[in-house]
Amino acid sequence: MNRRRKTIFLICFTILIIFAVFVGGAIIPETALKADFAVKNTAPSLNHIFGTDWMGRDMFLRTIKGMSTSIMIGMASSIISVIIAVLLGTLAGTLSKYTDNVVCWLIDFVMGIPHIVLLMLISFALGRGFKGVFIGIAITHWTSLARIVRGEVIQIKNEQYIKISRKMGKSSFYIMKNHIIPFVFPQAIVGGILLFPHAILHEASITFLGFGLSPESPAIGIILSESMKYILTGYWWLAFFPGLMLVIIVILFDILGENIKSLIDPYTSQE
Amino acid sequence: MMTIKYIIKNLIRMITLLVAVTIFSFILVTSSPIDPVQSYVGAGVAVTPEQREEIAEHWGLNDKPIERFENWFENIIKGDMGTSLIYRKPVSEVIGEKFQSSMILMITSWIISGILGFVLGIIMGVFKGSFVDRIIKTICLVISSTPTFWIGMMFLMIFSVNLGWFPTGFSVPVGVSADSVTIGQKIYHAILPAITLSFSSFSNIALHTRIKITEIMESDYVLFAKARGEKLIDIIKRHVLRNALIPAVTLQFASISEIFGGSILAEQVFSYPGMGQAAVDAGLRGDIALLLGITIISSIFVFVGNIIANILYTVLNPKIREGGVYSE
How far apart are CA B51 and CA B69, in angstroms? Predict the structure, then answer.
């Protein structure tokens, strides 16, 4: 098996697992998570591989359902971030120096407030809950990708084919649409996948702090902040397995992004 | 001459950004549907319309948003950030107190994570492709995918609950008033949060340093040094360290925002009474003045960090320092 095949195999494998968790979580019925006080706070066993919580709910099912929510939020906000980043990055790179300054200033501005504090502010402004987290995550993750896109655009702006296109009287919009966007698009996709881990981690963090999803909704952050109450009693599985699951999913997304990147990049794709 | 111009340009930029942050956060906070009066008295407590009106009048909630902003902004410029509803003290006083505890935490972990990250990065870069490199790289990648608060929870479980080495929370022992706490006790309570925070932030700098070192090790001057017969340790001392230090220091100053965010999470896990916890409390209980105050202070931190990073980059790098060439 050569390197390229291995990369493709890894990509398929990670997509499969992520997809399984996503769909699996979505189809778990609410009834599977009903309280059963006969089996509350049991340690992991074959029946309940992640153990059960204080209401006797199976932690494995809760975790999968929570991960599914996280993946959904991550996916939607990654798409929004990619769109904002490509749009602003391309605008900054192609239009006047003035636009460039404005976009750079905007990036600095969003990055100037510590990310968690900014998420807290947005969540507060929208009255907490799902809407607050979702919008907060979606509109704050584009900055680093926009910087990358801008850099790329500035680099190819002076290429021959774009200069020729300009000399032939094509408009800025035409050049942007036909030459620049297709060029930055693959990078933006990879950037979007690599945004995923950040989005999921931030969603979990902000929910953990109590600003995110409501306590009834299945979310990793909720599960973990709940388990904080039991941490002193020695119910280690409540915090350990859901957190581990989160880490694994985040790493899978990282692997996915890096592998797609090496596949798209002509320097490494044929190795 | 160029450097001074550059610094002034940066400072002006920072001031415009800071003003924008103030306006933006004020708009966000005041447009919240969360009723400050209700969250002040607590959920479930009934407030008569007259009482509500009185409180609202007292806080100036009935004024037009523009007027409120003008009042508030004028006071901010004078250094008065209003009164915290939770602590019933001036915001500047609350932040001042919390700031001290947070600073101990942040500075220690900032230094530890910087040094640890840099050293690990050098080891990885110099021995690239080796067993050691692969192990440390994997650890770094795993850590960068792990939420700070979960690391904190695991540490709390292992070191405080199971092994009993460290206290389970609070920056002072239970039953001791805040004034009579010795420095030793304070440090003792800050150890685990500080370790958590440094542990969760060294991977970034380590991975960046690794890439930089790899570049340096493949350069012609290192090849020439090897050909001259220089020992590895001399190559590292003479060529690698100095070249890798500039990006590492820059990155470390630019990472203040992340350390700040991490400290909020670490403080929450260890119930360590610092700025992060105050920010969370303020947000959850609708303490607008405190939330705004913390936002502004934290932004100042980030901007100052960025400016220092920019300036250090120009000052430390001899190519830019003498040539006056700006890569921007």
Answer: 24
Q: How does residue B35 score in pLDDT terms, banded at 50, 70 and 90?
A: low
**Residues found in chain B:** 328
Measure B226 CA to nearest chain A CA, in Å.
28
Residues in chain A with CB shorter than 8 Å from the CB of B13 are 105, 108
Concatenating the DSSP letter of every residue in A87-139 gives HHHHHHHHS-HHHHHHHHHHHHHHHHS-HHHHHHHHHHHTTSHHHHHHHHHHH
Query: Phi, psi (5° rounding) for residue A258?
Result: -65, -40
Facing residue for B34 by CB, picked from A111, A124, A246: A124
The answer, as to whether pTM is greater than 0.95, is no
| Domains of chain B as residue ranges with CATH | 91-320 (1.10.3720.10)
Cα separation, B76 vs B59, in Å, equals: 16
For A113, the closest of B149, B284, B298 (CB atoms) is B298
Return the residue matching tokens 């794709």: A269
Is there a contact between B216 and B240 (Cβ–Cβ < 8 Å)?
Answer: yes
CA atoms within 13 A on the CB side of A255: 21
Domains annotated on chain A, with CATH: 74-264 (1.10.3720.10)
The string of pLDDT tens digits covering residues B159-213 is 877 776 776 655 445 555 555 566 666 777 778 888 888 888 888 889 888 888 8
